[in-house]
Amino acid sequence: MHIDVETKFEVGQEVFLIKKDRKVIENKEKCKICNGEGHIVFKRYTMSCPECEGSKYICVDSNIVDNYFTDKKPHTITSIGIKTTAKESELTYMIDGKAYERKKVSENEIFATREEAENRCNELNKEVKGNGNR
Q1: Whole-prediction pTM value?
Q2: To pair with 11 at 20 to 30 A between CA atoms, which of 32, 88, 129, 133?
Q3: Terminal-to-terminal C-alpha distance of the chain
Q4: Is 108 in contact with 15 (CB distance < 8 Å)?
Q5: In angstroms, what CA-CA distances link 84 with 6, 89, 90, 95, 110?
Q6: Is 128 in a helix, a strand, or coil?
Q7: Residue 34 CB neighbours (<10 A)
Q8: DSSP class of residue 86?
């Protein structure tokens, strides 16, 4: 078997990564059982509110918000791997050897310049806003 693969980047090349920060935004209101006190009196005993569990607030809805951003410093590609199945092939890049928290990243998360990475983040963030995720 002979495999010849064209890669977008080379070993030793400095690249910029995009990352995603995911947050959960909760819409809360004051607990109606304890009136925001966090506790109730039952048969002359003070106890934590069973509805809000002492937090004083109830979450009425929540939304997941994604924010894409560019790493501040460039990273170095230390190796390239390929996974081949009967249906497809996938390239992964090892970044900064073992020092990087996600050791392997796909080609769509890597860019040759900071400007390209920032432009892609802006596109992704617009898509997130357009989908009502913000």
Answers
A1: 0.65
A2: 88
A3: 49
A4: no
A5: 14, 4, 6, 20, 20
A6: helix
A7: 20
A8: S
Token pair, residue 14, equals: 């400095």
Give the span between the Cα atoms of 1 and 25, in whole angstroms.
51
Q: What is the pLDDT of residue 33?
A: 94
Give me 3's structure tokens: 């495999």
* Spatial CB neighbours of 89, under 8 Å, sequence gap ≥ 6: 5, 82, 83
Look at the block and give the residue holding tokens 């928290």. Answer: 101
Whole-angstrom CA distances from 113 to 55, 74, 96 are 46, 9, 17
Q: For 8-25, what is each residue's pLDDT tens digit?
A: 999 999 999 998 899 888
- In the predicted model, is pLDDT for residue 99 greater than 50? no
